[in-house]
Recover the amino acids of this structure.
C-alpha cells in the first residue's frame, strides 16, 4: 500500500494505492473517488474492533459514522481510493506500531486506517465526555499500520513529558499513556467564562498529543449567527 497526502493544508485529502487483494478502511462517506476495480463493502465492523449494531452506535456517540467502508483492490490489479474529510482542514497520517502506545482519537477526528489496524470504542465517562463538550466514546486505534486523522485547520503533534493544557475543542488524538481530566481554565467559573476558554483538558504523563489549530464548534456558531433565517 502507498499513501499520498494531496493538497496538504486547508483542503487536504489522501490518495491510497492498493496492491491486488489489499484493503483499506474509512468512515462511511469519506471516499470521493475510486478506480473501477475497487470493491467497496460497507459494514459496522473493522478488523479486531467493535462491530455489529452496538459498535456502530458507539461510533455515532463518538462523533463518527455508524458505518465503515472497506475498499479492496480486485481483478489482480492495483487500485486507488481517494478519501477526504467533510470539513476543510488537514489530513494527517499517524504510523501505528504495536510496540508503541495505542492512539485515542477524539470525537470526529478518525478518517481512515490500514486494514491491519484495530478500532475499538473507549468510554470516556459522563463527566469527562458531556461536561467537557466532547463525545462519550473515543476511537482507540492499535496494531501496525497507518491511521489517518483529520481536523479543522492545521494538526500539530506535541511530545509531552509532564503536563499540557488543551482547549477541549482543539484535541485531535493522544497516546493512551497520557492521562487527562476536564477542568476550568481559571480558579473561578466567572474568570473562565470571561477568558473565552471555558473548559480545558489537562493532560499528564509522557506521550504524544495531536492538536488542531482551529475550533469547528466556534466557527459553526459564528457562521450560524450570520446566516439568514429559514423561510417557511
Amino acid at each position: 500500500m502507498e499513501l499520498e497526502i494531496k493538497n496538504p493544508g486547508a483542503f487536504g485529502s489522501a490518495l491510497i494505492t492498493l496492491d491486488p487483494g489489499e484493503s483499506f478502511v474509512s468512515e462511511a462517506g469519506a471516499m470521493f473517488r475510486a478506480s473501477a476495480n475497487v470493491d467497496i463493502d460497507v459494514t459496522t465492523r473493522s478488523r479486531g474492533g467493535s462491530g455489529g449494531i452496538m459498535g456502530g452506535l458507539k461510533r455515532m456517540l463518538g462523533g463518527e459514522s455508524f458505518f465503515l467502508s472497506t475498499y479492496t483492490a480486485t481483478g489482480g490489479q492495483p487500485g486507488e481510493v481517494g478519501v477526504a474529510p467533510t470539513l476543510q482542514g488537514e489530513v494527517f497520517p499517524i504510523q501505528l506500531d504495536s510496540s508503541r502506545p495505542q492512539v485515542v482519537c477524539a470525537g470526529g477526528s478518525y478518517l481512515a486506517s490500514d486494514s491491519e489496524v484495530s478500532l475499538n470504542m473507549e468510554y470516556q465517562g459522563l463527566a469527562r465526555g458531556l461536561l467537557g463538550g466532547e463525545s462519550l466514546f473515543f476511537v482507540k486505534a492499535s496494531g501496525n499500520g497507518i491511521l489517518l486523522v483529520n481536523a479543522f485547520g492545521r494538526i500539530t503533534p506535541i511530545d509531552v513529558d509532564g503536563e499540557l493544557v488543551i482547549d477541549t475543542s482543539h484535541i485531535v488524538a493522544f497516546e493512551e499513556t497520557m492521562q487527562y481530566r476536564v477542568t476550568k481554565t481559571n480558579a473561578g467559573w466567572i474568570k473562565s467564562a470571561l477568558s473565552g476558554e471555558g473548559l480545558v483538558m489537562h493532560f499528564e504523563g509522557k506521550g504524544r498529543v495531536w492538536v488542531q489549530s482551529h475550533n469547528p464548534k466556534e466557527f459553526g456558531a459564528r457562521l450560524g449567527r450570520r446566516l439568514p433565517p429559514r423561510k417557511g
Observations:
- Confidence is low (pLDDT under 50) at residues 50-64, 192-196.
